[in-house]
Amino acid sequence: MGYNKVGTRCVGNACRFSLCEGKLLFSELKKHMTTGPLHAAYLVTGEDAFLASDAVARFRALAEPMPDFNLSELTAPESAAPIIEACESLPLGGDKRVVIVRQCKADLSPLMGYLSDPCPSTVLVFCAEKPESNYTKILGKLTVVDCAKLDTKTVLSWIAVKSKTFGASVKENAARLLIDYCAGDMSRVSAELQKLCAFRYGGVIEEADVVALTAPTLDFKIFALSEAVALRQSQKAAAVLKNMLESGVSPLLLLGMLYGHFRRLLYVSITPGYERMPADLGVKEYAVRKAKEQASRFTPVKLKKICDSLQEADYEVKSGKMNDKTALELAVFKALSA
Fold it and tell me: What value does the mean pLDDT take over residues 204-219?
């Protein structure tokens, strides 16, 4: 057995799969798996659990029609040995054997030998939202399936198609609002869409339906308040703030969240091209994308003033000079006039 010039493993005259490592977006995975060739090993990673689950389900389907014999799922293996053993087993009653590995913190360097000459009938799939350092040595042998949150255009297309299978259709402004309410999380978008389609079965989902039936995340409310501040819409800012306070969230917690939000806006405003921003800020890529969109509505000077005002309000509360609700309302008022 050997390899041809493009890195495809050949057995006899048949090329079984490619060993070329690389990166696939989740949206490219279906086409990759149907047109082939399949790769020897993959890493499903990214912040959107819904997409990651869907990707794993696609790989799991390769073990049909006899998954009892052709599918091995290993959780937190203590070493690379059981992974290698599972990969070297031959399929029974099917073309492919699939090995899925989750929560792996073991030393994976022994896998280098296997991955240099893998079993042509096995597809190895690692799953990790953020792979740890034990993946470093083998990462070059893995094809990464990126399950980061999808861009708005892709989710809008998904909603348009999926809503029809649920028996309704969705206006674009309603779909956009649903995405924002769910902070782009596909698990929540899917669940809320099913609920909305059941409510408007056979009809059209309007923006008012989303407002009435979908509870926005607290992050969305923070963004909405920030947007009102950017546009100097005092009445809207007051309404959003009132809604947040009535939801039972501590004013002091809201102060901290607002400070973190505006500090993030300031950071992305003064370092727009920095690639490690999500890791440095400890947030998801989606949050950074939204922050970049909103930061463009402010000047860095105004963002600095707002951050200083929120920090001052936090000190006033913790030093006992002002109650938390008053300090929060005053900070928002200062932000509007900054």
Answer: 93
Count of CB atoms situated within 10 Å of the CB of 4: 9
3-state helix, strand, coil in the chain (%, to 5): 55, 15, 30
| Dihedral, CA of residue 263, residue 268, residue 274 and residue 276, to nearest 10 | 50
Residue 209 has phi, psi (to 5 degrees) of -65, -40
| Contact (CB, 8 A) for 129 and 52 | yes
Residue 9 gets the label, from left (phi > 0), alpha (psi -120 to 50) or beta, of beta
**What is the pLDDT of the chain when averaged over all its residues?**
88
Name the least confident of 50-59, 68-77, 122-131, 147-156: 147-156
Nearest 5°: phi and psi at 274? -80, 120
Q: CB-based burial of residue 279 (10 Å sphere; 0-12 exposed, 13-18 middle, 19+ buried)?
A: exposed
The C-alpha atoms of residue 36 and residue 58 are separated, in whole angstroms, by 13
Residue in the block written with tokens 């029609």: 65
Q: Which of 137-146, 168-177, 262-271 has the lowest mean pLDDT?
A: 262-271
* Closest C-alpha among 285, 23, 242 to residue 143: 23
The verdict on whether omega for the bond into residue 37 sits within 30 degrees of 0, i.e. cis, is yes
